[in-house]
Design brief:
- The structure is a single chain.
- The protein is of the alpha/beta class.
- The protein has one domain: Aldolase class I (TIM Barrel, Alpha-Beta Barrel), CATH 3.20.20.
- Helices cover 40% and strands 19% of the residues.
- The strands form three sheets. An eight-stranded parallel β-barrel has the order 6-7-8-9-10-12-14-15, surrounded by five helices. Strands 3-2-1-4-5 form a five-stranded antiparallel sheet. A two-stranded parallel ribbon has the order 11-13.
- Helix 2 crosses helix 9, helix 3 packs parallel to helix 4 and helix 5 runs parallel beside helix 7.
- It is globular.
- The structure holds S-adenosylmethionine and iron/sulfur cluster.
- The site of S-adenosylmethionine has 19 residues, from loops.
- The site of iron/sulfur cluster has 9 residues, from loops.
């Protein structure tokens, strides 16, 4: 679930809260905030992150009530009478999940990486990329700005595999952000010992974004030298057992992949219990060993989104920045109309954003965040979706 509309707690059973929204109820875990029956709360990704004073909640809900139902009508109209694969997938999304669309922020705090993935511009052996590390203070300030000024309720903290941020530093960053502002923190920091993820959970992180990249063990071994699919899957399963909400998925169109492989990738994402599916097209980077490989066409990515939706009617499916990069004009719209229901907005300070060059020409790299939010809200409104992670 992913409502940033305040809801009312109507039942508590241990850590499980039942929260009432306008005409439906959802469940969320209360471990991050102390709540009582009758409280108004914000919940994100299945976690209550904050209580809201009743008068404030009433005011926000009054505004939402007007908007939400108008948007829902638009969404229903656009999803009616499905014929094509994409329309059928969109209709399933509409029927199962309604019109709410998660909009998370992503803060890329370091472009240093000790790993050497063949597909990635941040790989260790790429000496041509300029690298940065945000200081702890910069990270805290950027996160606070995203939450307090821009209204994000969920933030991904992402980096290369950078041991400079050791466990103690990462834990300080997580708890430091939460001391300043309530937010669902999702870490995306790659291979680390499970004990580090346990320490970050203790510090208050509640989500992990970690793709398994490919379900083919041999391809995985070639693409990520020195590591194994088995270890990656064990880590993803391990963090889930720690209580994290897991966002996972794959890199579509990797050289050596196949249609059957895509089907297996979708199935594995579901088997891992992904709260959100994250898969994007592989975009070749000129300073990597895969520089000469082909870009997958937008149509194949939309097919994958639609098939994922039909196979997993209730999944949250992300429109990735890489998909938007394939078609900067229409990629996000088409992804949302082919069955996706989530987006991320880059909140990394612009001076660093350009250096986080996983692949060239990333969508949104030059945009200032408020204009990007405006553009996303406009897009979502035109499709009848309610942007439920960012303020109205
Ligand atoms: N280092 C962490 C990890 O690998 O899990 C997190 C950051 S990494 C940059 C995030 C994701 O970027 C990876 O999971 C991978 O799927 C994606 N990525 C890397 N290179 C890419 C490329 N050339 N095209 C599209 N996506 C890419
Ligand atoms: Fe490093 Fe992640 Fe890029 Fe691999 S995908 S090189 S781990 S940043």
């Amino acid at each position: 679930m992913c409502y940033a509309i305040p809801g009312k707690v109507v039942k508590l059973e241990g850590f499980a809260a039942t929260i009432e929204y306008f005409d439906e109820t959802k469940k969320a875990h209360t471990g991050l905030a102390s709540v009582a029956v009758g409280d108004y709360v914000y919940a994100q990704g299945g976690f209550v992150i904050q209580t809201v004073p009743e008068d404030e909640a009433m005011e926000i809900m009054a505004e939402w009530r007007r908007l939400f139902f108008r948007l829902r009508d638009t969404d229903r109209k656009l999803a009616a009478a499905p014929r094509t694969l994409y329309e059928r997938a969109n209709a399933v999304r509409q029927k199962k999940l309604g019109n709410s669309c998660c909009v998370h922020g992503i803060l890329e705090f370091s472009s240093h990486c000790a790993a050497n993935c063949l597909y990635c511009g941040l790989r260790r052996d790429n000496a041509a990329v300029s690298r940065y590390r945000m200081t702890e203070g910069e990270i805290l300030d950027a996160a606070e700005y995203a939450v307090k000024e821009l209204g994000f309720k969920a933030l991904v903290l992402q980096s290369g595999e950078d041991p400079w941020y050791d466990e103690a530093k990462l834990a300080r960053i997580v708890s430091g952000i939460l001391k300043r502002c309530p937010v669902l923190l999702i870490v995306s920091i790659g291979a680390r010992p499970l004990s580090t993820y346990a320490a970050l959970y203790k510090a208050g992180a509640r989500g992990v974004l970690m793709r398994f990249e490919t379900s083919d063990p041999a391809l995985y071994g070639r693409m990520k030298p020195g590591s194994s699919l088995e270890a990656r899957l064990e880590l993803i399963r391990g963090v889930r057992e720690l209580g994290y909400m897991v966002i996972t998925g794959f890199l579509a169109g990797l050289p050596g992949g196949s249609n059957r492989g895509t089907f297996r990738n979708i199935r594995l994402t579901a088997e891992l219990g992904a709260e959100m599916f994250s898969f994007g097209p592989f975009i070749p980077h000129p300073q990597t060993p895969l520089a000469a490989e082909k870009l997958p066409p937008l149509g194949s990515m939309l097919d994958t989104i639609a098939r994922t939706r039909l196979m997993n009617p209730e999944a949250n499916i992300l429109v990735t920045t890489a998909l938007e990069t394939l078609d900067k004009e229409n990629g996000a719209r088409e992804g949302l109309m082919a069955g996706a229901n989530s987006l991320m907005i880059n909140v990394t300070p612009v001076k660093y954003r350009r250096q986080y060059e996983i692949y060239p020409g990333r969508a949104g790299v030059e945009d200032d965040v408020p204009s990007r939010i405006q553009a996303v809200v406009k897009l979502l409104n035109s499709l009848g979706r309610a942007p439920t992670d960012i303020g109205l």
